[in-house]
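@channel sequence for tomorrow's demo:
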Amino acid sequence: MSAHTVFYGKLRSKTLLYYLFCAFCISLVAVNIIYSQKYNILMYGVMEGKSNSIIAYLKHISGTSLLNFEIESYKISGREDVLSQWENFQQENTIKIQKLENASLLYSYSPEIYYNLHLLYSENGNTTKAKENLLKAQQIDPLLK
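C-alpha cells (generated this afternoon):
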C-alpha cells in the first residue's frame, strides 16, 4: 500500500467522523429549538394576568425558593385578588390537613390518609412533612410511589 492511499484512507475516516459529529450537533440544536418553543398552556394565563392561572402556577412552584419571590412581586404590583385567593387556598389546605391528621389518629393503618397528607403538605410547601407522610404511606402499602 502506498503512502498516498494510507493518507487518503485516514482523511476519509476523519471526514466521516467530522460529518457525523456535525450532524449530531445540528440535530441537538434542532431539538432544543423545537422544545424551547413549546410553552406550557398555564404560562399564557399567567402572562395575561388571569388569577386562576396564577394560583395554579403558585401551587406548582410551592416548596421552592421561587414562591416567595413571586408572592412578593404580586404584593408589589398590587394584585390583592391573587394574594387573597392564595391565602384562602392555604387556609383551606390547613383545615384539610388538620382533618386528615385527626383521621390518621383513628385510622393509622390507612395509606390513603398519609398519601393525601403528603399531597397537601407538598402543596403548602412543607417538603419535610410531605416526605414523612409519603414514607408512612409506603410502609403501610409498599406499592405506592
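heads up for whoever presents: Residues 3-36 form the longest helix (34 residues).
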